[in-house]
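Notebook entry, structure prediction.
Reason for the run: the old model in the group folder had no record of what sequence produced it. Starting over properly, with the input documented here first.
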Amino acid sequence: MSKTAYDNDFLPPGTEVGNRYEIIRPIGTGGMGNVYLATDEVFGDKLVAIKLLHNQFTFQKKYLQRFIREVQLLSTINHPQIVRTFDVGVDKELVYFTMEFVDGLPLHKAAQRGLIDMSDWGKIILQICEGLSAIHREGIVHQDLKPANIILLPNKSIK
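New structure, fully documented this time:
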């Protein structure tokens, strides 16, 4: 593995984070950070998603607290429609957390590609409601619910 990079706007493949995770490729970006596909060496190169807080937020207390709070809240939920979190850490100037890698398509892309039949929508909406209900039971309000943040799996279940 290569040395840890400090600019998470683009971490090249092979970059090591936390002396444990090796970046494979970018998955996506959001308001708070970038998400990458990585392997977890501790668990035999298991695939994980690793979210890194954007550099401009790393040393701003309110954003760092919000990022850590996101991890804390996610870790309290165990539900089939909610992505599991695994680890949180700081590696030099990189603040990150790891979560379950979900191999599927964002809901909007799956719909654009015609991968969802009309008969599937009711089941998908029900699953979204079940996931939201699980987080609401924990006193959490999802503040970024959108089709890009809902992943459709090949079996038509969602995360």
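Summary: The CA atoms of residues 33 and 46 lie 22 Å apart.
The old model has been moved to the deprecated folder.
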